[in-house]
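Dear support,

I submitted the protein below through the web form. The confirmation email said the job was done, but the results page showed an empty box. After a refresh the structure appeared. I'm attaching both so you can tell me whether what I see now is the final result or a partial one.
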Amino acid sequence: MSINHIVTPLDSAILDSKEQYVFYHKKVDFALKELIVGVQQNGLCTPQEVVFFKQYCDLLLYSIEAMRVKYMYDEEDNMKVDVTDSGFPNYLEFRYLFNDLSLRDNYLNKLKDVSELQDEFLDQLLRKKQPVKRDKLYQAASIVYYTSVEQQYIFNRFVQGKIIKAPENSEAKFMTSWSFYDVSLNRPFICFMYFDYDGNDPLKEKDDIYETLKAVADRKMNMDTMAYGIDKRLKNVYPKYFKRIDVGAFHNVFAKDDNDLTHTILDAISKKEIPLEAYALSLKIHEVYTGGEFKEGGYFKKQILQNWSTPIKEGFVFAPHRIIQLLYNKNPEIMNKLAKPPFQVSDLKIK
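What the results page shows now:
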């Protein structure tokens, strides 16, 4: 497989062969698992945040694996990977997957019985001594897909976490998390809110809290703007600290964006200086803290709101040792601006 074999109409790369599906999904699976370990080992999240971070990444991995099964032998449609500044599947792929699984029963009724399909496979392989036809493989993949993939585990545009008591020595008494897939950037974001509550149990207002987060914080925006929007709509909730993790871009052979790190890796791959499996993963963490309170509103209706600090913005890169050397050599100005030196992760080796 070469870079030129990956078709890229507009802003998506289309995976149009079994080999490309296998290759891409191994890369994403491997990189995200390395990221989870790297985030924990390098203290970028608290132990409780790491638990939530892993859960959201697991949903993402589950969804991408479901896409692999769904599209593996599909001759009519191909999966699209965003190439603008992402490297992850296009958001519409998650939407198609979710909607498709809503019609699970309709599709299952149209598929052949498993035993009948097994007999056809055995006849083709043992009696006729011929490979199984692609349409039969697609039928088998469809059976696996519709009988094993659960809609509730698909990474949706917005995924809400539970409200829990914050760990000791936290900025506030309670915390919650949520994740969203930004439809313009095609990247996953994972967020945390630490807050106090005017009362004993914020779960009494959990529906209002969840609805507010979904309405106000389901896309990338300035952190102080997001914090003010949430604070203003929830009168009994007093946010104290927000943290947002931007996962991506995923710099690899399937990405063809304007990102300098991506171009460096693609150029080195084309010159065969590094293998096709080479990758790097950017990660950005934005934080904002409360800086006191102020009152807003008229004489008869005032609301206490939070002043917010200037957002803290930090960038990180995870990459194997050889790629770190390459990026420092070609993009020293970018690498030197990172919050910390690049975190080394394992090489991916695909035979």
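Response: this is the final, complete result; the empty box was a page-load delay. Confidence is low (pLDDT under 50) at residues 1-11.
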